[in-house]
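Quick one: co-fold with magnesium ion.
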Amino acid sequence: MMRTLPIDNNQNIQVEARSMGAEQQVEVGIAPAGKAATGQPVVIMRDLKKWYADFAVLDGIDLEVRKGERIVVCGPSGSGKSTLIRCINGLEEYQAGKLIVNGTEIGTDGSGVDIVRKETGMVFQGFHLFPHLTAMENCMLAPMRVLKKNKAQAREQAQAFLERVGMAAKANHYPSQLSGGQQQRVAIARALCMNPQIMLLDEPTSALDPEMVKEVLDVVLGLAESGITLLCVTHEMGFARQAADRVIFMDRGQIVEQASPDEFFKAPKSERAKQFLSQILH
Ligand SMILES: Nc1ncnc2c1ncn2[C@@H]1O[C@H](COP(=O)(O)OP(=O)(O)OP(=O)(O)O)[C@@H](O)[C@H]1O
Ligand SMILES: [Mg+2]
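Sure, here it is.
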């Protein structure tokens, strides 16, 4: 089903209307990727601005992400990367511009957020699992509370996604009984249990000991191959090269550069990107 939403005074963009409801099918298998070029725009930002007092944390962001596209967001600390992706599921408000996610406009007053939150999964640097719930219970909670799935459905789905991230054997462990990498894999499974259209990951590996980075990146790579729309803030440039369709480089609240990983790493255009890459690539 398609509908047309006004983007600005003289432009209309067709966006895919969201599919809602608890009857959504669970897709656990890996679907072919590479739909990026033809997908409909699922995230549309037009001149998005956010200030803290007179400090512009997002300073006029124009961004369009197509269904199935895999985006890596990078840039110096404080450049606005987390704020940008947190806006996409309404964890941050903005003050000016336009934001449409999966066909729903998120207003500057936070309208639309309840719908968008059901359709986006978020994975944080610090895992954020509920400590008093097992891995399985962490994965079952939101589908039961928000999507009104019954316990058996929620358990079956949680089991499937825990298997997908290689955590089925530890389904009954509490977060404190899991390593950082294992907790993060559970957090990814938990996000997937909401059957999100869009996955947002904010430095999913940066709180991990080096030996656990790969196990989590492998799971994110699997996600990237599944055809889901993915935006990942990361400085893991190997991951960006392997998984991203597009790298977005931010500095001081602006998107300074965006290009394919190949182009971005081989021939960054701006001085700021060159300087940034010289600091993170050795
Ligand atoms: N509540 C707040 N009040 C004032 N300034 C804030 C607040 N939250 C964030 N900022 C500022 O907004 C800017 C962008 O923050 P953000 O967390 O989006 O950066 P980032 O690119 O994700 O950085 P990092 O790589 O360190 O995670 C930073 O300069 C930060 O200090
Ligand atoms: Mg950040």
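If it helps, Confidence is low (pLDDT under 50) at residues 1-37.
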